Amino acid sequence: MKAFEGIKFIAFDLDGTLLDSVPDLAEAADKTMQALGRPGVTVEQVTTWIGNGADILIGRALSRSIDVDPGLDPQLHKQARQLFDRFYDEGGHQKSALYDGVKDTLAAFHLAKIPMAIVTNKPAQFVPHLLEQHGIADYFVDVIGGDTFPLKKPDPYALHWLMEKHQLAASEMLMVGDSRNDILAAKAATCYVVGLTYGYNYGQPISASEPDIVLDHFSQLAETVKLDS
């Protein structure tokens, strides 16, 4: 298997990469639609709608399509987003789970003293609790949510910010994600990128976005990052 050399920092997406969170997201979206007197939504639908942050997820649920209806009432959208946040918070993220191999692999990188960050489009308010809940919060030196900065993935803003903060060359950073937003952000930042096949990518194969390496299992990541001995 191909291995990257000289990696000094790894940025990870969250939903669909470290965490299978779609059951909780789908439940909150479904409750939101029903509270508004609209048809409910399924896990299968929501799986193809996530990845661009909560606003767009709710816009897609209201539109019942991956393409948000341009005629959507902004007030309805705002009300739906507030309901979604409430239901998602009240659910306590009880149905979300780490993917196989995530905890052990993160622990190995942490032991090897490779600093790591979360770069997700999920609203920042939900992220620390999720990391704590799954026992991985201590592994990350930075946690960036979808509303931490003015721009989110696929914009490379967060990756550029990390490179500047940690004084990294682009060739020293690796982005790991499951969505074309992750791949596009990494390519725009000119850093390396791994695409995972098991996550949420709008029903499209991640290989279509042409990451540097495609992996089927998170634990394979340990073989692709050559640790300096």
Automatic annotation (TrEMBL):
Coiled coil: none annotated. Mg(2+) binds at D13, D15, D178. This is Phosphoglycolate phosphatase. The active site is at D13 (nucleophile). Keywords: Carbohydrate metabolism, Hydrolase, Magnesium, Metal-binding. Its cofactor is Mg(2+). One of its GO terms (biological process) is DNA repair. It comes from Photobacterium sanctipauli. The lineage of its organism: Bacteria, Pseudomonadati, Pseudomonadota, Gammaproteobacteria, Vibrionales.
